Amino acid sequence: MSVIPVDFRASHAHFHAESARTRSVTELGASLYVPASRLDLAQIAQGQKPLPVRSLIFCTEDALHERDLEPALHRLAALLPELETGSALRFIRPRNPAVLRRLLRMEGIQQIHGFVLPKIGPRSLGDWLRVWDDRYDHWLMPVLETPETFDRRQMEVLRDGLEDSGLREQVLCLRIGGNDLLNLLGIRRSRGATVYDTPLRSVIADLVCVFHPAGYTLSAPVFERLDMPEVLVREVEADLQHGLLGKTAIHPTQIPVIEECYRVSREDYEMASAVLRPDAAAVFKLRGTFCEPATHQRWAAGILERARVFGVAG
Q1: pLDDT in tens, 236-271
Q2: Where are the alpha helices (DSSP H) in the chain?
Q3: Domains of the chain, each with CATH number or no CATH
Q4: pTM
């Protein structure tokens, strides 16, 4: 996986771990994965590369060969004490619980906003919990990418396990590991196909139905083609229709494409504003559409949050 990062916009306010609970998952935008072995990791992490990123994920898992793990961890250990506050959100994806334990003991780890925990399932959750240390109030983003992800009942068990763990307030979102799941099926999407043209369509729908009613947010899986922005647009539109935000990006050129799709249409903005007005009627019609605040309130709040972060189109 080859990845690079971004120039950070001043409008993205500081996102210290201490104030993280006041922040929105929407502010992740398109999260850019960066192998932690990169020679320019420090420049990327410090925002010295002109790239349009809102959130960075420094990866020590699938983006690295096993032989590159130790150099990557040494690079992170050298970087963390020098890491300055910036406008991009910064996360680390540990390779396994043992690596997470090492990271949590590193000087300067409080400068990281959280961790992306790979291959989370009902059976592996306990392994991560045994090494977890929440003294710095880090965010967690577990990744759903194991065989259990295909089993709705197992995902319900995982949901209940997260509730029982006491980590509910620290789970910023759950990430869907699309390529890992397709690999388990022995499938790679063809050119021109979105993830919704594969068997993962029903899997994603199930995950939404299991986790969204419980108050968890799901992020969208990576789109691996770098030369088909029109297909990426189709996939992001389908992501949004499934309620997924915070799509994983593997190259900076994908970020503007994804985040342009996150802009809110003028019609949706006006409708959401009308639904959330204190004096809104119980039922009303706007732009030829039936609106009922009692049933459209959560959608409307999400639309206005996207508009706050990404703006309104047109």
Answers
A1: 999 999 999 999 999 999 999 999 999 999 999 999
A2: 41-45, 69-79, 97-104, 125-131, 152-165, 178-185, 200-211, 229-241, 254-262, 266-275, 293-310
A3: 17-262 (3.20.20.60), 263-314 (no CATH)
A4: 0.90
